Amino acid sequence: MYDPTVARLTYRALLGRRRALILGALPVLLIAISVAVRVLAGADDQVAADVLGGLALATMVPIIGVIAGTGAIGPEIDDGSVVYLLAKPVKRPTIIVTKLIVAIAVTMVFSAVPTLLSGLILNGNGQQVAVAYTVAALVASIAYASLFLLLGTITRHAVVFGLVYALVWEALFGSLVSGAKDLSVQQWSLAVAQKVSGGDLITSDVGLPAATVLLVVVTVAATWYAGQRLRSLTLAGEE
Amino acid sequence: MTTLKIDHVSRWFGNVVAVNDVTMDIGPGVTGLLGPNGAGKSTLINMMAGFLAPSTGSVTLDGQQVWRNEQIYKHIGIVPEREAMYDFLTGREFVVANAELHGLGTKAADRALATVEMQYAQDRKISTYSKGMRQRVKMASALVHQPSLLLLDEPFNGMDPRQRMQLMDLLRRMGDEGRTVLFSSHILEEVEQLASHIEVIVAGRHAASGDFRRIRRLMTDRPHRYLVRSSDDRALAAALIADPSTAGIEVDLQEGALRIQAVDFGRFTTLLPRVARDHGIRLLTVSPSDESLESVFSYLVAA
């Protein structure tokens, strides 16, 4: 289910110069803000939880997920170079799973690592806040990468739809409309973070068992369907 | 021996029929798929390559379905028309990746690069390649696993004459080795120079099939129309109509020119300058008035 050549092509495309700059900008921004907050406000557990919850988990992780998830396959489908993968005796699910693994790894590196760093900067992992949000970012990376990879096989405008989902649904509706909270990767990963931190600084609207089931179901279903999409991918000619 | 069988294949996109009930067998040797732009050649090649499902009918390679059968690519090499490749790789990295995806190693990649004579630039980024170089690297990527069927979509587009000749030699060689090679083109001369067998597609329909001499004859034997201006139109008209190669001449007073219909193309083209010289007439304009490819093809469809 894993092909090293597909993986190499995918991460080299993902970490091409321009995309790497965008991927790197958000973590740098998060860490810069964390340093500023720490200097101005001092070490405060509540402030640390607010910054990591509002900025890292609600904004940065989904945006990195959109860039890595859609970028792992979207551009290849868009410009037609995916034909060099498809014209090979390689199983389509293998291509998808490999690309997903790369997208997850990239999302984790560019979102979970800076989350941990800024948590340590903000309050030195007081009340396990830094570790809890890092685990949440890791868990969310898996779900986001698989969702947005699927989106990359469905539409040419995957980045736009991905950003709308990440910012409008997750960040806005997710925090305003109660029903939407149940269907939010952010809330599911917060449930995991809540369990890790143990305290009441981090709370989720979804229980841990439900969150775990939903995370697994979404990841597996999105990956399976992306494989199906690729099997029947139609390459229209120039005509 | 590999035979690609296209059996009553149609493909439509919404209300537009791109390929209309095409049936053909492509056997060993070089076959040219000829047709004007927009005739459905790319759609047909995409279906042959398993990148597009036929709306009706079937495409099989030695009895095996092509659509949704990734194992078929062990036997098929594809050179797509689109330019996009993995531009951030070097030529060699690209061909090696293609070899690895076939379960082969660098040896196969190096052999393919040697076949297309691209070793000299193999360590340069693909983004720096000219169109002809890209085409050759695409070709190498399609050849790494020595496929028995090679499909090429407009492979000569944008190539200079020398590159064109090299690629033609290569394809001819592959055909002689007993591989099944199919390439599409909208340029008759290209197809004529290379293909021993031609399939003509016009407006999504299979218009003609056969060896190029027959099709060439169909194309050259059709009545040709010329617009001719000279220093003495009437004298020229009188002299030309006496020859059986000319079927009709109209003196177009408004245009101040002769509209000539020639039935024997070869004979007429040598007759016209000779007659003009013998009668001391100066030819001012000689232009074929229906030489567009579309008119040639529409004649073929009617034939």
Describe this structure in words.
Chain A is an all-alpha fold. Chain A has one domain. Chain A is 80% helix and 0% strand. Chain B has ten helices and 14 strands. In chain B, helix 2 packs parallel to helix 4. At the A-B interface, helix 1 and helix 5 of A face helix 1, strand 6 and helix 2 of B.
Topology record:
The complex is a heterodimer of chains A (239) and B (303).
Chain A: H1 4-14, H2 17-41, H3 45-71, H4 74-79, H5 83-86, H6 92-123, H7 129-154, H8 158-176, H9 178-182, H10 185-197, H11 208-231
Chain B: E1 4-13, E2 16-26, E3 29-34, H1 41-48, E4 56-61, E5 64-65, E6 76-79, H2 91-101, H3 106-115, H4 131-143, E7 149-152, H5 161-176, E8 180-185, H6 188-194, E9 197-202, E10 205-211, H7 212-220, E11 224-230, H8 233-241, E12 246-252, E13 257-262, H9 265-278, E14 283-288, H10 293-302
Parallel strand pairs in B: 3-8, 3-9, 6-7, 7-8
Antiparallel strand pairs in B: 1-2, 1-4, 4-5, 9-10, 11-13, 11-14, 12-13
Kindly list the characteristics that best describe this protein.
A: 239 residues; mainly alpha; 11 helices; B: alpha/beta; six-stranded mixed β-sheet; 14 strands; 29% strand; elongated
Radius of gyration of chain B: 24 Å
* Morphology of chain A: globular
Tell me the fraction of residues in β-strands of chain A, as a range: under 5%
What are the secondary-structure elements of chain B, in order, as H or E?
EEEHEEEHHHEHEHEEHEHEEHEH
Mean pLDDT score of chain A:
90
- Rounded mean pLDDT of chain B is 88
What's the N-to-C terminus distance of chain B? 32 Å
How many H/I helices of chain B? 10
Largest sheet of chain B: 6 strands, mixed
Describe this structure in a few short sentences.
The complex is a heterodimer of chains A (239) and B (303). With 239 residues, chain A is an all-alpha fold.
